[in-house]
Amino acid sequence: MITADVNTAKFDEIEEKVLEIRRVSKKTKGGNTIAFAVLVVVGNNNGRVGVGYGKAPDVATSINKAIGKAKKSMVDVKLNGPTISHEVIAKYESAKVFLKPAPKGTGVIAGGAVRAVLELSGIKDISAKMIGANNKISNVRCTLKALKKLKG
């Protein structure tokens, strides 16, 4: 019997968080086609985080699609203990995010979608400020872009 030496621990400890479920519709010749669009963040609370967006006729399928895309798009975040090593600014479309390291015991000071990304990436002490957009998709992608900019 052949056994593959695959590390399944990477996928077992991944947490998923659904940030947004939208009911969307498309105008067609036969009428309106209704679907559900879902935004999901996944992370292992130890320096890996990903974002996925899935769309399907029912909620369960769209969540599964989004989780699959999020797992494929996972990136490594360079942590400095429970925080980040330096300040970082990122811009994605109209969203702008400022991430600033915080002293131990401060916690995650961030709002909404940004908070979910930071918590699932494993950052414990950080201060964040979003400017310019209320759109969760833009805010999440902007935060991910900022985390990619971090240097060890």
UniProtKB/TrEMBL annotation:
A cellular component term, taken from the record's GO annotations: cytoplasm
Record-annotated S5 DRBM domain positions: 14-77
MF (Gene Ontology): rRNA binding; structural constituent of ribosome
GO biological process: translation
Gene3D superfamilies: 3.30.160.20, 3.30.230.10
InterPro entries named in the record: Ribosomal_Su5_D2-typ_SF (IPR020568), Ribosomal_uS5 (IPR000851), Ribosomal_uS5_bac-type (IPR005712), Ribosomal_uS5_C (IPR005324), Ribosomal_uS5_N (IPR013810), Ribsml_uS5_D2-typ_fold_subgr (IPR014721)
Pfam families reported for this sequence: Ribosomal_S5 (PF00333), Ribosomal_S5_C (PF03719)
Annotated family: Belongs to the universal ribosomal protein uS5 family.
NCBIfam families, per the entry: rpsE_bact (TIGR01021)
Name under which the protein is recorded: Small ribosomal subunit protein uS5
Species of provenance: candidate division WWE3 bacterium GW2011_GWE1_41_27
